Amino acid sequence: MTWLRLDGVTRRFGGKDALSGLSLDVEQGEFIALLGPSGCGKSTALNCLAGLLPLSEGSIWQDDVRLDTLPPERRGFGMVFQSYALFPHLSVRRNIAFGLQMRRLPRAEVRRRTDEAIKLVQLEEHAGKLPGQLSGGQQQRVAIARAVVLEPSLVLMDEPLSNLDAKLRLEMRTEIRRLHQSLGLTTVYVTHDQEEALSMADRLVVLRDGRVQQIGTPEELHTRPANRHVADFMGYRNLLPMTVTAVTPAVVTVEGAGLTLRGTGVGTLAVGDEVVAAVRPEDLQVGPDGVPVTVEVVEYQGRELAVEARTAQGTMLHLRAVERPTPGDRITVVADPARVLVFPA
Ligand code: ATP
Known about the structure:
- By secondary structure, the chain is of the alpha+beta class.
- It folds into 2 domains: 226 residues, Rossmann fold (3-Layer(aba) Sandwich), CATH 3.40.50; 109 residues, CATH 2.40.50.140.
- Helices cover 24% and strands 38% of the residues.
- The protein has 8 helices and 19 strands.
- Strands 6-7-8-3-9-10 form a 6-stranded mixed beta sheet, with helices on both faces. A 5-stranded mixed barrel has the order 11-12-13-19-14.
- It is globular, with a radius of gyration of 24 Å.
- The relative contact order is 0.12.
- Bound molecules: adenosine-5'-triphosphate (ATP).
- InterPro entries: AAA+_ATPase, ABC_SmlMolc_Importer, ABC_transporter-like_ATP-bd, ABC_transporter-like_CS, Mo/tungstate-bd_C_term_dom, NA-bd_OB-fold, P-loop_NTPase, Transp-assoc_OB_typ2.
- GO terms for molecular function: ABC-type transporter activity; ATP binding; ATP hydrolysis activity.
- This is ABC transporter ATP-binding protein.
- Keywords: ATP-binding, Nucleotide-binding, Transport.
């Protein structure tokens, strides 16, 4: 049962598509991330949903009611922005209560719901303070409480964590996910951070130049990116231009820049095709009978070592190692053919 439907949503600025034909079905309670690099159309999509931007083409439906012709306030959505957009002269409590007061709800109800929202985002100790007296993370929690206190049918979030430091960003990810689950919210969340999207969302929509590249669960995008652009975004750091030299139903063999790799073809490929072989660093390992390379850079990354090494022909490979090699070392690297994806160039 589709609860919210975007059908061919398109928005142009001066004849150029900022967002082109976005179609998406959202289930109630889902957490959807819109993901892509700067300028790909994420905010345009969110603003079209919110009603802050009229569509050039397409339509938006909720339970068979056409939404895109309604003004923002009649859509019943909550919004959380990167900039928090709090009232600086109002206390935390009054910021959160503001929307309820605007709806002229009885005072007792305003107080009860405001108290609940304050508790939900764990700001009880700070309820009397002004936004300027809070940390960035606390301010963002106020912004979230202010949105959810109105019990919106859908919460739209535009890069809400990008002004926070790395540690707080991680904490707030969990926090937002927790709120999403405990309140049964439906959320559309915009981010350019692939890790953030993968860790939070039930499904991701990857955009590039205003066009949908792929819609899928984190696992689908991770293991089966639809094209090299999605692969690039999903952390396939080795994107190697090569040529197909053999094709069997199971394995495609590709060669280029002194490398021979075996992988899985995405789409139909034939001998002689120009392709891009995509491999994640964690799927390239030091091993016998592999490609000889010379180590150039070694870096700690969590529990593993991130290694950059160059082939004799000068191609740089990104891989992982468990034991620390030294720059200048000659090693050989191997890849599991099941984890090498071969895309048409
Ligand atoms: P960012 O992460 O940098 O905010 P984004 O993915 O959210 O990027 P959008 O803001 O949706 O991207 O912009 C998509 C494209 O539309 C860009 O090329 C942008 O320059 C253009 N664009 C967005 N808003 C306008 C506007 N009001 N007038 C003209 N062009 C616009």
